[in-house]
Amino acid sequence: xxxxxxxxxxxxxxxxxxxYLDFIDGLRAISILGVVAFHIGLPAxxxxxxxxxxxxxxSGFLIIGQIVADCEAGTFRFGRxxxxxVLRILPSYLLVVLVCLAAGLVFLVSPREAGGFGEQVMMSAxxxxxxxxxxxxxxxxxxxxxxxxxxxxSLAVEEQFYIVAPIVITVFFLATRLIGRWVPRSVLASxxxxxxxxxxxxxxxxxxxxxxxxxFYHTEHRIWEFLAGGIxxxxxxxxxxxxxxxxxxxxxxxxxxxxxxxxxLGPATAFPSWQTLAPVxxxxxxxxxxxxxxxxxxxxxxxxxxxxxxRVSYAWYLWHWPLMSFAYVVHxxxxxxxxxxxxxxxxxxxxxLTYLLIEDPLREHRRELARRMPWRIVMAxxxxxxxTALLGWTFGTVRVDQxxxxxxxxxAPALEQPDPRCDxxxxxxxxxxxxxxxTAPAVILLGDSQGNAASRExxxxxxxxxxxxxxxxxxxxxxxxxEGVVDHGAVEMTCPDLLNRSLGLLPREGVGIDRAIVMAQWxxxxxxxxxxxxxxxxxxxxxxxxxxxxMLDHLRSLGAKKMIVLAPFPDFVLYVxxxxxxxxxxxxxxxxxxxxxxxFDAQRRTAMAWLPEALAGEPGVRLxxxxxxxxxxxxxxxYKGDTVYFVDTGHPSHAGEEAIYAATKDDFxxxxxxxxx
Length: 677
What we know:
The chain folds into two domains: 14-405, no CATH class; 420-569 and 604-627 and 655-672, Rossmann fold (3-Layer(aba) Sandwich), CATH 3.40.50. It has helices at residues 14-17, 22-40, 51-73, 78-107, 111-125, 129-136, 142-145, 153-175, 185-205, 223-235, 244-264, 277-292, 296-301, 304-311, 313-330, 337-372, 374-406, 431-437, 449-464, 495-508, 522-525, 541-557, 576-585, 597-603, 605-615, 654-663, 665-672; strands at 442-447, 468-473, 485-488, 491-494, 515-519, 562-566, 595-596, 621-624, 635-636, 639-640, 643-644. By secondary structure, the chain is of the alpha/beta class. A five-stranded parallel β-sheet has the order 2-1-5-6-8, with helices on both faces. The chain has a two-stranded antiparallel ribbon with strand order 3-4. A two-stranded antiparallel ribbon has the order 7-9. The chain has 27 helices and eleven strands. The radius of gyration is 29 Å and the shape is elongated. The termini are far apart. β10 (639-640) and β11 form a beta hairpin.
């Protein structure tokens, strides 16, 4: 049987084979310490978030092995399995969600915050937080910092997997009943699990070398991590006892792989990539070799302080992130290691209480309760989740209405969209746009979401000068004709494909352009940071220069005689309207929502070095700096009096666009000035 790092009795019962391995708690401790340290923001471990991958391997080792063993013995019951999952996961999970819901009533001050949090609660109650994150934001960066239930994506992935996995494994055992007379079905199951492992890993790796961030959250791209542990657990009873040197080596190699991921990798590491195999395969090595016999590595992991941290790791994982996220919101985006360390300490205390008062008492009776009344427990769990989702929906409607009535209209500026008649990327034909254009000369707008947000104001400016604006701005795409990849709707297309398709409408319809405006988030496109939809953008200097010049050449080929390229303006840390509302409500300074001029200059330093270089010697092109609209010598402010200049962190409101035009009017007058006959 599984003993304290001891060998496995190959004739042990199913229950015994799932006995307690104390070093696994130590491995859990390594994982949670990495995750928490990463979220604190310490210089090391830079790859602490890989602790979640190790958790998945441990989960697969313990649970898939249990499912297969029970199926082989003919003792598996769906009700009992899911009842044990309910009793293990839901009590602490729903407690944390409900406490966060109460905290949201106190600390969230804007309709956007409340609406987004209500959605988080609903999706968390349905174990679908990963799907919400795929649609809304990424894991790294300020948007993630302000997402209070972001960390529950991993529980969503795990429970989605364990809804499907037992069904598939059970069907497999039924389907292979005949073959199982000659070949042990656990061996067949291992082969089938290995095939699914390869499929899932290949599916995750297919986007290399430019994987989209949302793969991070997809369940099908994480299955291989569960199966890395599950295959080891299924094979374990049939493996011969390894020599002690081999077990020692595998455990040491496994711990080295985990340490490599946690300390050497980081947010810049593409996920998935071959490097992500290190913590996953490494954890599997530790589990399988450590279950066979005691080693130096497993004795270290079985150290009592580590085991205790491992036992409270689930509750600590649940508590730590909401505290850090609420602190980030309440303290106007502060991410200091001191503040987050305090949150980590408090959350550890809450985790210990949760373990002692909820988890440990239930652990003593979980198996017996699941045996006696499995389906009643499952139905009670579903009802509790449904009630929590209802509370989240209520929060996201009633509370949003309450907050909307409490703030002045100017604090909720809307993000403007292009004129649908001339939003070229969405058109199959330009007939309606050309009819609206009439005989006016055309000016084309290229850009990303910033260009989209500015298109209405730019259209008004162009019309005032006797021009008609055609928009070819693409959210999430740099305005380059040969760089970037974006998943656009249901069909994956490259940004250049989309851009060339939209620009191709013009010569096909016999339309030439006379002027061009380029407006994009150059800070993103020169820093290697991916925008929310995962478009892969270049951070290579020479490639950027070449891409900008190719863009200008292409615009000239379409007829553009004069062009304006707008330089970057500030990209603020926090959502501007929310921050201003919070500052006003707490009688704080609105400058907490602003940015120092020095900080802004540093933010766009690369862009302001590369753009002039790219435009040097280009005839009929001006680089226009909109910064004076928002910045003086000391500060860049996203407001003026009661006027809010930004709808979020980096997209100007209508008032912000008017401020940009006022600050750059001479340049636009030059752009639209016509040659004297």
